[in-house]
Write a structure and sequence with these properties.
This protein has helices spanning 15-26, 52-62, 105-121, 156-171, 173-176, 181-191, 193-196, 198-206, 209-230, 243-279, 282-289, 295-314, 322-326, 330-343, and strands at 5-11, 33-39, 66-71, 76-77, 80-87, 92-96, 137-141, 148-152. The chain is of the alpha/beta class. Strands 1, 2, 3, 4, 5, 6, 7 and 8 form an 8-stranded mixed β-sheet that branches. Helix 4 packs across helix 10 (243-279), helix 9 (209-230) packs across helix 10 (243-279) and helix 10 packs across helix 12.
C-alpha cells in the first residue's frame, strides 16, 4: 500500500476551523490522505485578494504534498462566486466557505475538499479534460502548466444569494445576540412598564394584529439601523474595492443584525409574557379594559411592551465590548487582517 498524501489544511479561526475539525474527525480513517489542521488567519494583499505566496511559503516549510485553504473571505470570478479554486501546478486548493451556503456545511465541505484534492494531486489529466466535480460548474483558467480550475454555482442569482447566506452563517448571528446584553437590559427595563401600567393594557387591547406586527417590524428596523450606523458597520465602496462587494458585505451585515435583534425581541416577548401571566390577575384586567380578558390580551400586552422596550434598547445601544464589534462582520474582520499585517 502506498504512503498517504500529506496535506496541510490552513483554516481561518472561527467557523472555518470548527468545520475543518469536524471534517478531520470524519476522514480519520481515510488511507489516501494524511491531514494536518493549522488554525491560521489567511493574510490579504492590498487589493483584498488572498496572499497565496505566504501560504505557499508555509507549505514549503512543512514539506507537504498538497495544501488546502479554507477561508471565510468571499471570492468571485466576475459575477460568479467561487466555491473552490484548484491549482494543480502547486497542488493547492482554495475553498471559500461562504460560497457553500448555510445548510449542510460539514457535508458540503467534505465533498468539496476531497473532490478538489483528487484533481489537484492527480497526474493523469489530459489537455482539455475537465475535472470530475459534481458540486458545481467547473471553469478553466490559464493554460499549460499554469492551468487552474474554479467551481461556481450553475446559476448566478442563486449563487449570490447562497454566498450572502454563507457570509451570514460565518458571522454567527446566534452568537452575536448575547453580545448585546446591555441593550437587552435597557429593553427589559422599559418593556416591564407594560406589565404594570393599565394604559398599555388598554392600548394593546385596542390595536389590531396587523398594527402590532407593523410596530414590531418598525422597532427591529430601527434597532438594526442604529447598530449599523452607530457602530460604523456600513461598508462604503472605497473600503470594499467595488460597489458590488460593498453591497454584498452590507447585505450580510443587515441580515446578521436582523437575525440577532429578532432573537432578542423574541426573548424579550417571552419574558414579558411570563411576567404578565404571573403579575396581572385576569379579573382585575377584565375590570380595567372593560371586556373579558383572555390569553390574547396577555399576548398583546407582551407584544406591545416588547416593541416599546426594543425601541428604548436601540437608542444609544452598542455591543458589550470593542472586541465583539471588531469580530462581528466580514468587513470588520477583513480590516483586522490588514491591521495585523501592518503590525507584523
Amino acid at each position: 500500500m502506498s504512503e498517504p498524501i500529506e496535506v496541510d489544511v490552513f483554516a481561518d479561526p472561527g467557523v472555518p476551523s470548527r468545520l475543518v475539525e469536524r471534517f478531520l474527525d470524519w476522514v480519520a480513517q481515510d488511507d489516501r490522505y494524511s491531514f494536518q489542521h493549522i488554525r491560521q488567519q489567511i493574510p490579504l494583499r492590498d487589493d483584498g485578494t488572498l496572499d497565496l505566496e505566504s501560504v505557499r511559503n508555509w507549505s514549503h516549510e512543512h514539506g507537504v504534498d498538497a495544501t488546502v485553504i479554507v477561508t471565510e473571505i468571499p471570492r468571485t470570478a466576475g459575477h460568479r462566486p467561487k466555491m473552490t479554486a484548484i491549482h494543480p501546478a502547486d497542488s493547492l486548493v482554495i475553498i471559500s466557505l461562504p460560497a457553500l451556503g448555510w445548510f449542510n456545511l460539514t457535508k458540503r465541505l467534505r465533498r468539496v475538499i476531497l473532490q478538489s484534492l483528487d484533481v489537484a494531486v492527480r497526474s493523469d489529466a489530459t489537455e482539455g479534460e475537465l475535472p470530475d466535480i459534481d458540486c458545481g460548474v467547473v471553469h478553466t483558467q490559464g493554460s499549460g502548466q499554469e492551468k487552474s480550475y474554479y467551481v461556481a454555482s450553475p446559476w448566478w442569482w442563486s449563487g449570490r444569494a447562497r454566498l450572502v447566506l454563507g457570509m451570514v452563517r460565518t458571522n454567527e448571528p446566534l452568537a452575536t445576540a448575547p453580545k448585546l446584553s446591555g441593550a437587552f437590559a435597557a429593553a427589559s427595563a422599559t418593556g416591564a412598564f407594560g406589565v404594570f401600567f393599565s394604559s398599555i393594557w388598554k392600548m394593546a387591547d385596542a390595536l389590531p394584529t396587523w398594527r402590532l406586527g407593523l410596530i414590531s417590524l418598525m422597532t427591529i428596523v430601527v434597532m438594526v439601523g442604529w447598530l449599523t450606523v452607530g457602530n460604523g458597520l456600513w461598508e462604503r465602496r472605497h473600503s470594499a474595492n467595488s460597489l458590488r462587494e460593498a453591497n454584498m458585505y452590507n447585505a450580510s451585515t443587515l441580515v446578521t443584525l436582523a437575525a440577532s435583534v429578532s432573537l432578542l425581541y423574541l426573548a424579550l416577548f417571552l419574558g414579558i409574557f411570563t411576567a404578565a401571566v404571573v403579575v396581572i390577575d385576569s379579573d382585575f384586567m377584565t375590570k380595567t379594559i372593560g371586556t373579558q380578558s383572555s390569553v390574547r390580551n396577555y399576548l398583546n400586552i407582551a407584544w406591545l411592551s416588547a416593541s416599546m422596550g426594543t425601541v428604548a434598547g436601540a437608542l444609544g445601544s452598542s455591543f458589550d465590548s470593542d472586541v465583539d464589534l471588531r469580530e462581528l462582520t466580514h468587513g470588520r474582520r477583513q480590516m483586522m487582517r490588514y491591521w495585523e499585517r501592518s503590525d507584523d
